[in-house]
Specification:
The chain is an alpha/beta fold and 376 residues long. It contains twelve helices and 15 strands. It folds into two domains: 200 residues, Glycogen Phosphorylase B (Rossmann fold); 155 residues, 3-Layer(aba) Sandwich (Rossmann fold), CATH 3.40.50. It is 33% helix and 18% strand. The strands form three sheets. It has a seven-stranded parallel sheet with strand order 3-2-1-5-6-7-8, sandwiched between helices. Strands 11-10-9-12-13-14 form a six-stranded parallel sheet, with helices on both faces. Strands 4-15 form a two-stranded antiparallel sheet. Helix 4 packs across helix 9.
Length: 376
């Protein structure tokens, strides 16, 4: 098969991506090429992939006023370039902005929703385009979505399970907060909870260049950093595993209706229990009392940190092996790709110099929607 994956505009796709959607795309690209398929990716030029990259400039560290027009033009240009290379069996779109870039093409399109369904413009669930399909990443996400004949699958996310032995609970000293740093992720609540519980906390992740994200870090997060709360920035795959493996728990204080949580799966794969707000898909991932604790307030998170040593690290890892492997996820996607390829005749994709009918629905307020993506 010949597959085109389109990332969120100007997003970095690699094993060290901070975004969950980008991590999923990276894994699909690896699995597709390993299976002998041709994989083409439209993503930031800094991406590290197995297939063929059509690279855009990477998202800047600070979002300026002219960013949106530039981002749109740069992404469109590379999509056009990729589609001009010939016939595709499938186009797989991953960005929350996918509706801005639907091509004028007869190739089947699969959209994986990585955000809460209500965060998308509601007309996307009625796109009048043949051979257009939507995949959800959790049961709760699908239940929150409006009724739509386009939603055909629920393929849950998966992560690599590292080859390591979990450390016993008594050797774990600190808590960890890992992922994008933005208001919805409640990073400051996690720091406060660890401080109140008398436990050191390590914060790892990145701050996107959106003004409100930068302001949140400077006003709410940076002032809370001290000897007991340390910020280490973005971490690579091996460093992340070691950080999680040595932690007594992962804190997920997100207020967003999470559609998934790769970082929770990664923590469990390292034998590290998770303490999370009872939000969205998190109760699907965390077995309360067995692989972590679900809480409803900062007070409960503080109490849970004191009790988390009762959770068995080996059971956390066993659960991750059984439920959250990346091999399961990629196998299900590739099986679905093959089903679509058999049902639809490959056609020559043509961009036609425009972005397609869906682009007419874009509005200024959608361009100004800077909410960070959950499932990170």
């Amino acid at each position: 098969m010949r597959i085109l994956n389109i990332a969120f505009a100007l997003a970095h796709v690699a094993d060290d991506s901070n975004g969950g959607a980008e991590q999923v795309l990276w894994q699909l690209d690896r699995a597709a090429t390993a299976a002998g398929h041709e994989s083409l990716i439209v993503a930031a030029e800094t991406s590290r992939i197995s297939g063929t990259l059509f690279g855009t400039p990477q998202q800047p560290k600070k979002i300026e006023k002219d960013y949106y027009a530039f981002r749109y033009q740069a992404h469109v240009a590379k999509i056009r370039e990729a589609l001009a290379t010939g016939a595709f069996d499938l186009v797989h779109m991953h960005g929350y902005d996918f509706y801005e870039f639907i091509p004028d093409s007869d190739a089947p399109i699969l959209v994986t929703l990585h955000l809460p369904p209500s965060w998308y413009p509601q007309w996307i669930y009625k796109i009048p385009r043949r051979e257009t399909f939507i995949n959800c990443v959790s049961a709760s996400q699908r239940m929150m979505a409006p009724r739509s004949t386009l939603i055909v699958r629920t393929i849950t996310n998966g992560v690599r399970i590292p080859a390591l032995q979990p450390l016993p609970a008594e050797q774990r000293k600190h808590a960890v907060i890992l992922g994008r740093i933005c208001p919805e992720k409640g990073t400051h609540i996690g720091i406060q909870s660890a401080r109140r519980a008398g436990v050191p906390v390590v914060l790892a992740g990145s701050v996107a260049g959106f003004p409100e994200h930068l302001a949140y870090f400077e006003q709410e997060v940076r002032p809370a950093l001290n000897g007991a709360a340390k910020f280490v920035g973005s971490v690579g795959y091996l460093e992340k595993n070691e950080l999680l493996r040595s932690a007594r728990c992962l804190l997920v204080p997100s207020s967003a209706p999470e559609t998934s949580s790769l970082v929770s799966m990664e923590a469990l794969a390292c034998g590290t229990p998770v303490i999370a707000f009872r939000s969205g898909a998190l109760p699907e991932i965390i077995e309360h009392g067995n692989t972590g604790l679900l809480v409803d307030s900062e007070e409960e998170m503080v109490d849970a940190i004191g009790k988390i040593s009762e959770i068995d690290p080996s059971y956390c890892r066993k659960t991750a092996l059984e439920r959250f492997s990346v091999e399961r996820m990629t196998r299900k996607y590739l099986e679905w790709y093959e089903h679509v390829a058999r049902a639809a005749k490959p056609v020559l994709s043509q961009f036609g110099g425009t972005v397609g009918e869906a682009a007419n629905h874009r509005t200024a307020e959608l361009h100004d929607d800077h909410r960070c993506s959950p499932g990170r």
